[in-house]
């Protein structure tokens, strides 16, 4: 059966109590965490006391009280003696945390639950591990492997991985996926599919804002208080989350050059930072890289002052300051006293960065609303004086006398009991150092390692005649060099060094000695006095989440990624635990447990596993094959039993059956193609997912894990079958070495090629070097194998040395040798060096071949160097003729360059010389014509491709469908998509993205979503480009809610929005009139750490200008990043605001910056001039525009015509209209609208009718209106217009036409749509009505 696993919570379930859990694996008991709260309530440790003696090992995850606070007490009171495992930072910082806890309470109470000696003793038996280190347990835990991994919450914080028989038990509480300033986040991919996952629900109901936003709000809040002459208190832990806060403050103070003092105040502040300075390898990658490059230690604090005594803080200048003081709960320590002093000043701020523990003062102050006053107990230790001192001394003397009497009696009894047994033991002058114990409250330079000397009289043995001092002869051992020395006498124990470092260490000023040691070594009689008082809370209280834990959304995503077989939930409120449990049952796994205190749950795996031995006889016949970092082999055996009854695998008694080939892992054809290419096998897709290797071999994927090959075995196929034969190769070389023989050149070359093809190139190089050193003369192909490997790694200098050395060993470089070098240089973009080698080959005896030129042309193609290609085309034709690879490379290069004429010319030439195009050539041309908008030509080529039996692949279909979608031919695109599926070609992400984008562009949202559903159903994950297209489509069609929903889905899938996506969102909100939402998107843009580029800033400025916030828009204008678009957008906003003087200044600034105004800028400027009636300036600007080579467009002319018409200058307006027609600019309905209104205003009905006839002749849509008589001679035109005469029909000349709105008009403030009025007026004019 599977590994037996039971979990028993001892504390910390369905609550926020400390963490402590019993995990039993096959009878081996782990105590995972041993936490206590800041109340140090022994009652919550009762479950631990019952099982402490059965614990086999203790695993500590974090260096804070909640995870290890009860360890000293449990070892002292409960008999816990198991070995403890943790990381180095957890050990060091956990020790300091407990020191600080003890000293904080000893100062204000008669704290006697544990002493400093108890703390030292608890941390002596600790084994320290590094991240990802596998530690194999022995004895009772044989077969169990434990390994710590990054948790991301506190420095050294650990996710424990316990492995037994291949099954993983993961203990992951208080983890953080976010990468912070001083810590890396958890890596969930290290814990995929564990058998059991134990995790917490502490944050299952909380969601957090982005980290950069939190950091900024944190710094802004503190600066606001300081600038208001206030002080800021941050109650913090001793050596945990405070380190992140220090880094944030250091960064902020350095960036803004702030000079407000910052103090870090704990009893062990100096020692904490000293140790942290040495833990850089445990911190974030950014800190480690910074130290490697600049040797700058992130914790060489420049703005934070370390204090270990409150007197130092009291003596500091009374100015605005920031103080980080322990404890975070405000139950004890310096933070408690500082809060009492500062709470009464309304200018001050108490900023909590973590939730207070239940029942503490911090938790009370974090209530909503906070209390207006709190009761606190102020305690301090004072020396005894007077009668109290005398009474204390008398009591101490009495105790000493009693102890001396007891000691005397005990010694007398011991002396009698030991008489005659051991001379040394009967000597009262010999004191056993191990039996002496220092006083609990007295420390010495070596801590518990001190040796006390006790001098006393001796009791003479009853058999002695007279008392005398004993004499012992010192019988030392001697050798040829003198007296033998025992090295152990000169070794200082590790624990002595650690304790000495703890108590004496610190900064250069030895502040720890002055503060902490003064309390430790103070033996003066003292007492604690306390008094209760009510403190009015006038200061500001604020909680900001800097706990460093993953939030609810991230926890759910990480758990889904881990996908455990069974899940155990601990540590969280009842509501949070039940919420996460219900979610996990539905989304993560069906087996979810949430046990109560002391409730044991059996989470044993359902798998059946048996322990068997592999007999030596069996293993001697097993042939291993290398697979990545592992070796695998077929094992044919039968099960038997050894003499002691253990199951064992024995060799078969009969001949083993033959084995069929089997694929291990999931092979992707694209990866396999690249693998073959890297190993010298040219392969390309031939349609239908088939991979054609050379002329004879075709590989086709049949299922998920099976592949089928076709064609006869040929030399072309040999590399495929020889890539996985490394072990046989090494065995062969080893056999030759033992026999002192050399391989034949052919055999050596074949075996070395297998090694390099199996990523063992370094080994092949060593073997070749060894053979050469023994005088072996290889074939040049052996050198070529090694050269290929070196060039692949980019070691061109070494590769060149190998080529130069070949003649010394009797080998002349051949064309393959040089081709390897040229290919390496081309892939490294060093095309100049590649050309140099080709030129050298042309002048030498080794002439370049077709492969040489194909490699070179491929390099030219990737770097778009078509001129160089023409030069070497001529050189190639002197040596050899191009093949299909050559032509395909040329066609692809010119098509990507946009020179379709040359590409098509080469394509036709290829056909004319008898080289039939392959799929690459066809696809390159099709893609080029589609991008140029010539889809009909592309479709024709596609037909030729299918007619010539060249199967199109997914790239071909993707190029063609993308071109059809961009031309709006969606029906053809849909039809082609269906045809592709019929041909058995599976679409990829790029193809789906193209067709989805096309339908969104046309507004076919439902169809686009259908394709998106198909994409997901086929298991194709949306990449960032696909999400951008979908979000843009929803934004374009005004469905911002759905776009936001897609964005949330994308983030939950592990992808982060990029600049383009956020800019699209911002622009959509601006266009929808939602200014607030647009600005929130921009803030999110900044919080994610993106630097606004010119597109983002231009979008922001344009949106603000169009919403009337010109001044705000100017504030975002950045001259350093501006381009023509930025200036044009700003000028357009200024023009619409009517500030023409300001426009001239900005245009001058634009010209000085080297940018030339475009037609859009001129048009905005001209439009505003015309709007303000400044027609002369408008004409002058238009003439300047033409002189500078900027052609006016329709909008420019429309603006000028509008200005002239508004002034009644219809003759001039008609001249401008005619000029526009001469320049080939066709007017639209808006231009005719302006002219007709102008003519109507002056009563020129002939001109109106003429314009109407022009509109009829042009392809302009002029709406018609059905007119009916409505009685009394009135004429009803449409729904809203009624024409009627006033007076007699004989008075035509003075009869105005009245137009009035119907009561049913939906827009009461709009008199009439122009088109309706226009047709109605024309109707009136033709009917003889006068206007």
Automatic annotation (TrEMBL):
User: Which named protein is this?
Assistant: Cleavage and polyadenylation specificity factor subunit 2
Q: Which GO terms describe its biological process?
A: mRNA 3'-end processing by stem-loop binding and cleavage
Question: Which InterPro entries does its entry note?
Answer: Beta_Casp, CPSF2, Cpsf2_C, CPSF2_MBL, Metallo-B-lactamas, PPR_rpt, RibonucZ/Hydroxyglut_hydro, RMMBL
Keyword Repeat among UniProt keywords: yes
| NCBIfam families in the record | PPR (TIGR00756)
User: Which superkingdom is the protein from?
Assistant: Eukaryota
A GO CC term attached to the entry? mRNA cleavage and polyadenylation specificity factor complex
Q: SMART domains, per this entry?
A: Beta-Casp
According to the UniProt entry, its GO molecular function terms are: RNA binding
Please report the residue spans annotated as repeat (PPR): 779-813, 814-848, 883-917, 918-952, 953-987, 988-1022, 1023-1057, 1058-1092, 1123-1157, 1158-1192, 1193-1227, 1228-1262
SUPFAM superfamilies xref list:
HCP-like, Metallo-hydrolase/oxidoreductase
Q: Which family does it belong to?
A: Belongs to the metallo-beta-lactamase superfamily. RNA-metabolizing metallo-beta-lactamase-like family. CPSF2/YSH1 subfamily.
